[in-house]
């Protein structure tokens, strides 16, 4: 069922016509009473009653709001024109907000693609774009949005690992833009039938579950230490290579292979050690 425009008239001009009709009914009633003509008062009373009934057709529409009209249970259309309007007094009217709304899902405990339990929550920005589908396709479109969003968050979370662990694969922690777009597509697929458009969605909370949080923290720390050590060793080797090259080019000292190996060993200990080394001063010669 798609939205269509319901028939309605501008309220202010229609209100003026009602006022004129009310004055005519009042004049008719007074003239009939003065001339003792029973048709005058009866006609005036009938016109008063008719105007009272027709006045039920007046309604107000706020900006970014739609009025869904039903005639004896069937959908007649939607009025989106803001201001005072008048329509068939037999219409039943229901307000539907067209404003942009947002909500944050509850923290969900799910398993990621690696099977690790994680906690995840998302913020969703949405609005109704088709009032007929929002009202008649689902029972309660606001509750439908909340429940389907949580289902989409669970589905999306199982498609990625929490962390890629240096493999370069997309993960929940490192590929936020891609993950948020996937989440939006998942939610939109579920909410399209309810006449809802998902403007934006993004992860608002992401963490390992309590039972494995400490172990995963240690794993991350170990990975960071390994990466730092690899960088230190790479730099130390470059510095040792540069030192040997400079000594050889400048002719400061000629070292055989055994002494080069000893020098390399000492330099690597100094450069890669976590603590400052204590120097040992050799006051002898280069030879034993």
From TrEMBL:
InterPro entries linked: Band_7, Band_7/SPFH_dom_sf
Name where it's found. Membrane
Q: Which UniProt keywords apply?
A: Membrane, Transmembrane, Transmembrane helix
Name under which the protein is recorded:
SPFH domain/Band 7 family protein
SMART domains in the record = PHB
Domain Band, residue spans: 56-220
| Record-linked PANTHER family | BAND 7 DOMAIN-CONTAINING PROTEIN, MEMBRANE PROTEIN-RELATED
Gene Ontology cellular-component terms for this entry are: membrane
Q: How does it sit in the membrane?
A: Single-pass membrane protein
Organism, scientific name: Tahibacter aquaticus
**Transmembrane regions:** 12-33, 39-59
The UniProt entry, under Gene3D superfamilies, shows: Band 7 domain (3.30.479.30)
Matches recorded under SUPFAM superfamilies: Band 7/SPFH domain (SSF117892)
Using the UniProt record, give the first listed, main subcellular location. membrane
């Amino acid at each position: 069922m798609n939205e269509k425009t319901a028939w309605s008239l501008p309220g202010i001009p229609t209100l003026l016509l009602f006022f004129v009709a009310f004055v005519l009914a009042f004049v008719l009633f007074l003239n009939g009473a003065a001339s003792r003509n029973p048709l005058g008062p009866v006609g005036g009373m009938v016109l008063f009653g008719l105007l009272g009934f027709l006045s039920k057709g007046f309604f107000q529409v706020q900006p970014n709001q739609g009025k869904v009209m039903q005639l004896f249970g069937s959908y007649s259309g939607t009025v989106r024109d803001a201001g005072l309007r008048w329509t068939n007094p037999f219409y039943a009217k229901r307000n539907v907000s067209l404003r942009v709304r947002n909500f944050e899902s509850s923290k969900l405990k799910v398993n990621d693609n690696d099977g690790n339990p994680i906690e995840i929550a998302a913020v969703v920005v949405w609005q109704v774009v088709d009032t007929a589908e929002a009202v008649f396709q689902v029972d309660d479109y606001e509750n439908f949005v909340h429940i389907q969003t949580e289902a989409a968050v669970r589905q999306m979370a199982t498609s990625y690992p929490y962390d890629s662990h240096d493999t370069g694969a997309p993960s929940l922690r490192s590929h936020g833009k891609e993950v948020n777009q996937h989440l939006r597509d998942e939610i939109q697929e579920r909410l399209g039938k309810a006449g809802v458009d998902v403007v934006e969605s993004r992860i608002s909370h992401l963490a390992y579950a309590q039972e494995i949080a400490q172990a995963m923290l240690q794993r991350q720390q170990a990975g960071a230490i390994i990466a730092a050590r690899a960088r230190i060793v790479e730099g130390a080797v470059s510095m040792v290579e540069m030192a040997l090259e400079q000594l050889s080019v400048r002719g400061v000292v000629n070292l055989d292979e055994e002494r080069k190996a000893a020098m390399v060993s000492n330099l690597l200990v100094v450069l890669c050690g976590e603590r400052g080394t204590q120097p040992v001063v050799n006051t002898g010669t280069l030879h034993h």
